[in-house]
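Budget justification aside, the reviewers requested a transparent look at the raw inputs and outputs of the sequence design task funded under Objective 1. We therefore reproduce one unedited record. The lines immediately below are the structure tokens for a 285-residue chain.
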């Protein structure tokens, strides 16, 4: 079995499909009770486009149910009025083991979310720390194996990467984004297991593309149609990959690489510039 690359040619890296093993995960999600598009801080947001909050809640509940059906646990963070983007829980910070770093947001419209997520972390028994420089949590900080892939270019300061490395005692690999449509790392790259990622090459600088190819020679390179459908804003347990079902080509690539694609519809939440991963903060063991 082979998987097609972005050119449509068979990718011989997956001529022998490796076994994929799921691992039970612990997630956190915030219901979109107050979700709205009241401002525009990314290219996906349009204040003139109506938002159906009931539909957004129904789609969010579908994602929540999907995780439970896959055997994972989900902590529900209480939403707060006046914070319409709080549904994008991934941006709240980074938690690994007994350590937690809370976000420091770029835009003032989201700044109060940091306090909300810090209170939640404290209630769970963490002692969250802050960074001096801007970081937008798991939007730009994605653990893979023993390292952390760290995005910069739009939201998270490169200087924060050193702070993250010190906080968690892990190697941090800096990746620079260049396309404003992919303003967070988790919109352009998905961690599939401890050694495999999928990403959209045009979202990165040439140097970052070269680094990704060196780190992950068996990575899945995803084409524009699926990337623009936010297909890479996905969550994997090592075998099952929950992703926006509109990214049909990516689903086929996942299947050919031995993963089990689980498509969901979060089209209403995409109006705010987020999808599956944006709505999911993982609590890493």
């Amino acid at each position: 079995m082979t998987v097609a690359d972005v050119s449509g040619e068979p990718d011989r890296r997956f001529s022998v499909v490796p076994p994929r093993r799921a691992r039970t995960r612990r997630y956190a999600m915030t219901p979109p009770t107050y979700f709205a598009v009241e401002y525009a801080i990314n290219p996906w947001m349009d204040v003139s486009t109506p938002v159906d909050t009931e539909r957004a809640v129904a789609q969010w509940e579908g994602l929540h149910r999907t995780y439970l059906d896959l055997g994972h646990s989900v902590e529900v963070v209480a939403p707060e009025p006046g914070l319409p983007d709080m549904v994008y829980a991934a941006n709240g910070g980074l938690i690994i083991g007994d350590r937690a770093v809370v976000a420091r947001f770029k835009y003032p419209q989201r700044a109060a979310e940091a306090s909300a997520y810090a209170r939640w972390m404290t209630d769970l028994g963490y002692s969250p720390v802050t960074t001096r420089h801007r970081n937008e949590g798991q939007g730009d900080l994605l653990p893979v194996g023993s390292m952390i892939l760290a995005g910069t270019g739009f939201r998270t300061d490169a200087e924060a990467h050193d702070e993250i490395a010190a906080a968690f005692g892990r190697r941090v690999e800096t990746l620079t984004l260049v396309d404003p449509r992919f303003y967070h790392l988790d919109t352009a790259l998905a961690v599939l297991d401890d050694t495999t990622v999928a990403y959209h090459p045009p979202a990165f600088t040439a140097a970052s593309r070269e680094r990704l190819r060196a780190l992950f020679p068996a990575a899945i390179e995803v084409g524009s149609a699926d990337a623009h459908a936010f297909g890479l804003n996905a969550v994997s347990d090592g075998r099952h990959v929950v992703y926006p079902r509109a990214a049909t080509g990516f689903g086929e690539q996942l299947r050919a690489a031995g993963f089990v694609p689980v498509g969901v519809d979060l089209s209403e939440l995409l109006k705010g510039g987020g999808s599956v991963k944006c709505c999911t903060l993982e609590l890493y063991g």
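Residues 53-69 form the longest helix (17 residues). The longest strand covers residues 147-152. Computational costs for records of this kind are itemized in the attached budget.
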